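ingest -> validate -> predict -> emit
validate: passed (alphabet ok, no gaps, 259 aa)
predict: started
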Amino acid sequence: MTKAEKFFPKGIEPLPIRRNLDLIATYRDNAVHFYNQRGFGTIIYTLAQTSIVNFKDLLLQAFDIDLGDEISWSLLPLGTRAPISPIDFISGKTNDGKHPKPAVRHFLLELRSALDEVEKAGMDTGRLLTVFTVKLESTKKIEKADVVVGVRKAGEEPGPLAVVKTIDPNVTHPLRRKEVVEKIGTLHGIKFTPYVFDAIAWKYNLKSDPVFCWRATEGTLTRYSNDIVPRIKQLNRSEVSASINDYRAYLQSKARTPK
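emit:
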């Protein structure tokens, strides 16, 4: 880590990543002290998940390697009881009536100290610890499904049959353009403005894809699904820059075309 810090891409600060790894190493070196402490695993999961995101961003920005090409992000942790929120655990709201072990209290103090250090340095605490919410829902009634897929009988046309059901866009596409822009903020060091959004949406035809965009029949309202945020974030810096340049050229060409 010490040797690598000076090579970190602009926009990825080493300090919070170092503190994240310090805490994971502290857990590794003292794991025996944390056994049977209900809920503590959620802190380690959160630290580890943040570390994976840091690694992903470093690979992408330093080497233009997308970790998403190598591993599916749809891996979902399952359990027999509802997970405890890391925030609830830190604040002592575990509802089991037990006080955390001294080792756990010490670890949480180290975590608090690391967060304070990163915060005072004006750096991104999300690189040290980010809370990830995992939600699994089961919808039994077929009419509730967004998409119904069936397979034709032998003798008919081959391939699956997909019937897309129209459902409430307030549920499936809750975001306006302004909210998408706010959620992304910056992308590979580039300020994510409405113009950048329009450039990427135009370049990748996102407004024509019902997965990402819904338009009212009157054409006066356009809304976006939450899926559009990770779709845009998976673009690398060169793809974002190309989108902006190509969109600018397109607008200039359009302005020169006689009406």
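Residues 158-164 have pLDDT under 50 and may be disordered.
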